[in-house]
Amino acid sequence: MNQTNKTIRWGVLGTARIAEKVGKAIQAAQGSTLDAIASRSIDKAESWAKQYGVPKSYGTYEALLEDDAIDALYIPLPPSLHEEWTIRAAENGKHVLCEKPLAMNVSEAKHMADACRQHQVQLMDGVMWVHHPRTEQMQSSLNQNNLGNLRRFTSSFSFHWETVPLDDIRMQPEMGGGSLMDLGWYCVRATLWAFQTLPRRVWGTAQYLQGVDLNFSGVMWFDSDRIATFDSGFNCTARKWFEVAGTHGSLVCDDFTNPWNAAKARFWMHDSKGIPTEHMAEPKIQEVCMIENFTQAIISGQQNNHWSEDAIHTQQVCDLLAESARTGHPLCLEP
């Protein structure tokens, strides 16, 4: 891409529901335009393009990859398709923002990252909350040792299906379904974000339905007397919170994946006596923040490998948790 062009021209590969939210964020972000949409159905692509004001529509994914006017792709396809289309996008010189989970397993995730490095394009997974200003503010509180020595990280992410949609891709094992990869991924990422390292050992347990985990609970043991627990599921009320607890206090965020109220992004610090202090962050739309951060990385011309490394580490831990749940045994990470 010509770095003198300060506008990143985006295409979207697929018309999944999440593409609507991210597509609008691309249109709202500084330095970005949403120029093309592709679907396996030209009718669906044209309808989507008309609804969201997108200039170009394609009836095949290949046609969008071959459009030299497109700089970056957002890929909201099922996880089973992420490896193929990310690598093909990289081979065509396109930067890639790929939905989470990054891949079906850590081997695929590494292949994707290797391809993007080889072709000198940026890769990032679509974990939006890490780009919100609140996350940087919470990280600063952790870095300042306000909690003392960290000991525990506890998190939950769930929602309730009144009737389980058995044909939903989240209920299809061959498509990468299950609550661990759909929801637990956020809890694992948040744990690694807080502790800034990988666990030594993990244990998982799950309730399965047609081959995927309807709910999942996990434990992760870390060095320095630290432990993390989480749960995810499709059969419990809406929850999206975490707590980081140390020897002198705790940090609580009750909506870390996305603020319940976008105008009130908050978290609490509790001291050793339980006295809370509420902290407010700048009210921003995290999807827009994600697109703008990605865009700036492209414009800078310097690859940010930290994003893909975070995704690979999350995938590595999730893979081991899933294996532990299937086998019924705690498992250790390879050094």
Briefly say what this structure is:
The protein has nine helices and 15 strands. With 335 residues, it is of the alpha/beta class.
Structure overview:
With 335 residues, the chain is of the alpha/beta class. The chain has two domains: 8-127, Rossmann fold (3-Layer(aba) Sandwich); 129-287 and 317-332, Dihydrodipicolinate Reductase, domain 2, CATH 3.30.360. It has nine helices and 15 strands. The protein has helices at 17-28, 42-52, 61-65, 82-91, 106-118, 133-143, 179-195, 286-300, 305-327; strands at residues 8-13, 32-38, 56-58, 72-75, 95-98, 123-125, 150-160, 201-209, 212-222, 226-233, 235-246, 249-253, 266-271, 276-280, 331-332. Strands 14-13-12-11-7-10-9-8-15 form a nine-stranded mixed beta sheet. Strand 13 (266-271) and strand 14 (276-280) form a beta hairpin. Helix 1 (17-28) packs across helix 8 (286-300), helix 4 packs parallel to helix 5 and helix 5 (106-118) runs antiparallel to helix 9 (305-327). It is globular, with a radius of gyration of 20 Å.
Main attributes of the structure:
nine-stranded mixed beta sheet; 335 residues; six-stranded parallel beta sheet; 35% helix; alpha/beta
For the record, give the distance between the C-alpha atoms at the N and C termini, rounded to a whole number: 38 Å
Number of separate strands: 15
| Radius of gyration, whole Å | 20 Å
Mean pLDDT: 96
- Spans of at least 5 consecutive residues whose pLDDT stays below 50 are none
CATH-level-2 architecture of the largest domain: 2-Layer Sandwich
Approximately what portion of the residues adopt beta-strand conformation? 25-35%
Major β-sheet strand ordering? 14-13-12-11-7-10-9-8-15
CATH topology of the largest domain: Dihydrodipicolinate Reductase, domain 2
Biggest sheet character? 9 strands, mixed
Number of domains: 2
Which structural category fits the helices and strands?
Answer: alpha/beta
Give the SSE order as H and E letters. EHEHEHEHEHEHEHEEEEEEEHHE
